[in-house]
């Protein structure tokens, strides 16, 4: 903002901006969060530094140029709203996707935006204030959680479909019917496309079932859908027994964006190939691949069980139990508990992981729906029961999060999802579902909020303590310096009385002792006076207004006239600007700096004192330079500390408080001080002051 050349923009140079624009820009720049101001008829953008991290490389080409021209894609999205703000309306957009990549990355950005009008001097709307809260992390976290839930739902429904096929024999209980039903189910969770199931027959591959997003199309036995046996995308999964994603030279480890070929294995061999091809540009994501692989793997297990059951009932029952064990193992490995509730008896069968979540590591002897409700906290119980009743009534899914109290008294968060199952009479008499302990993510959110609150409290407490300590220190310094002057005056007074009393009888040694005492008293008085001035500087309120530095410089030189009597001093003073500040305090700054320059150049034949000003974007830099003794630049920071001196008292008198007072005054004006020098080559002191608005 400061470095930008505003002369070539519709707004012109900042010195000519209207007060309303200056005020709005000041508020924009001081904001801790990303904030932008769109000003004028062409919506010229101005940003604060917090915006840089979001808009990145777009900043250089956008600043100071009308938004419709410099950022047309953003104008296309929000142009009508910006025009609405010009009519006095306000807008808010939550988790809005922006056409940019934050921090130069590839991840899309989401923000919560606020558009509000900014009025000019005439009362009309002169600009649009845009506040931005980056919610990209939260949006992607919610999206990731949603994808995980979708994947769990797809797996649950696939398992439910396969389990229903295995446990509930019907007239349509064939492998082909199950494959078609599973294809139709999986298409609900995949990009638009079609699924085909291939089996080997003779010397080639035949399409046994083809289902597209528009409906099922049975291609069984159609000779024109026969493919050669060595067709690559079918041969590879047959030979490797692993999923194949065509188009990738490195095989199963990499995913093709649009296709998948998965072997359907049972009875120790690959019996068919389960294929999917997307119709459009949407690519397969890791979630899609996980759903496909889990479903086909479960389908193979189920068909394998059915195949063995055809050979022998006993072997089929054993295979079913083994498959369930493997399924339960997979759920346990994922930290999921499985359960099935008979809605007629309200009795549930569960995996051990389910009972462990509720605090029963050895399992619970008899679990009912009421047992579950008793564990749910009273505050959440009514909502959980309402969702359960609604799911049964509509034959829908039962999805919820709630808090439970384990048997050991610990409170935990759980997520559960159940799918109602038709019992054959039109009523939902079974609910099959999954459960997961989600206390970790929920507690992490709560801990972050609590930590933020605690940090804010600590900052406020430390700020208050520092202010109290500073006030006490200033009061102590004032009290000490003020109270010490009374005994000091007594010493000075009685020393003078003693000198008068002794008169001409004073021997030289006694006279020298009295002179040393008087000199020490005077030096101590100067130190106390300096401490009082330093204390007053911190306590006096600033009375700011326009200050002419040329006038103040003349006053400072007049005050230092006694220090230049009889000395050759060459003054080189350039034109000085008007600034904003307290004239009394700024006069003290100039007096101290010019006095220092005169003092440390006193050993030169001719003292050269230079004073000039340099313009900066939002301030003036005032520089004082002399040709005196200089100092070691390694100790420059010590110059501005109280009682810090870089030269001996015998060489140059001083209290070591003047420069500390200079820094305190300049800092109170919002400026900075600095000093540079080399021994024997003079010294340069500078300070900054805000420009006159």
From TrEMBL:
<dbReference type="InterPro" id="IPR013655">
    <property type="entry name" value="PAS_fold_3"/>
</dbReference>
<feature type="domain" description="Histidine kinase">
    <location>
        <begin position="479"/>
        <end position="693"/>
    </location>
</feature>
<dbReference type="InterPro" id="IPR004358">
    <property type="entry name" value="Sig_transdc_His_kin-like_C"/>
</dbReference>
<feature type="domain" description="PAC">
    <location>
        <begin position="94"/>
        <end position="147"/>
    </location>
</feature>
<keyword id="KW-0808">Transferase</keyword>
<keyword id="KW-0472">Membrane</keyword>
<dbReference type="Pfam" id="PF00512">
    <property type="entry name" value="HisKA"/>
</dbReference>
<dbReference type="InterPro" id="IPR005467">
    <property type="entry name" value="His_kinase_dom"/>
</dbReference>
<dbReference type="InterPro" id="IPR000700">
    <property type="entry name" value="PAS-assoc_C"/>
</dbReference>
<dbReference type="InterPro" id="IPR003661">
    <property type="entry name" value="HisK_dim/P_dom"/>
</dbReference>
<dbReference type="InterPro" id="IPR050351">
    <property type="entry name" value="BphY/WalK/GraS-like"/>
</dbReference>
<dbReference type="InterPro" id="IPR000014">
    <property type="entry name" value="PAS"/>
</dbReference>
<feature type="domain" description="PAC">
    <location>
        <begin position="398"/>
        <end position="450"/>
    </location>
</feature>
<dbReference type="InterPro" id="IPR036097">
    <property type="entry name" value="HisK_dim/P_sf"/>
</dbReference>
<dbReference type="InterPro" id="IPR001610">
    <property type="entry name" value="PAC"/>
</dbReference>
<dbReference type="InterPro" id="IPR035965">
    <property type="entry name" value="PAS-like_dom_sf"/>
</dbReference>
<dbReference type="Pfam" id="PF02518">
    <property type="entry name" value="HATPase_c"/>
</dbReference>
<dbReference type="InterPro" id="IPR003594">
    <property type="entry name" value="HATPase_dom"/>
</dbReference>
<dbReference type="InterPro" id="IPR029016">
    <property type="entry name" value="GAF-like_dom_sf"/>
</dbReference>
<dbReference type="InterPro" id="IPR036890">
    <property type="entry name" value="HATPase_C_sf"/>
</dbReference>
<keyword id="KW-0597">Phosphoprotein</keyword>
<dbReference type="Pfam" id="PF08447">
    <property type="entry name" value="PAS_3"/>
</dbReference>
<protein>
    <recommendedName>
        <fullName>histidine kinase</fullName>
        <ecNumber>2.7.13.3</ecNumber>
    </recommendedName>
</protein>
<keyword id="KW-0418">Kinase</keyword>
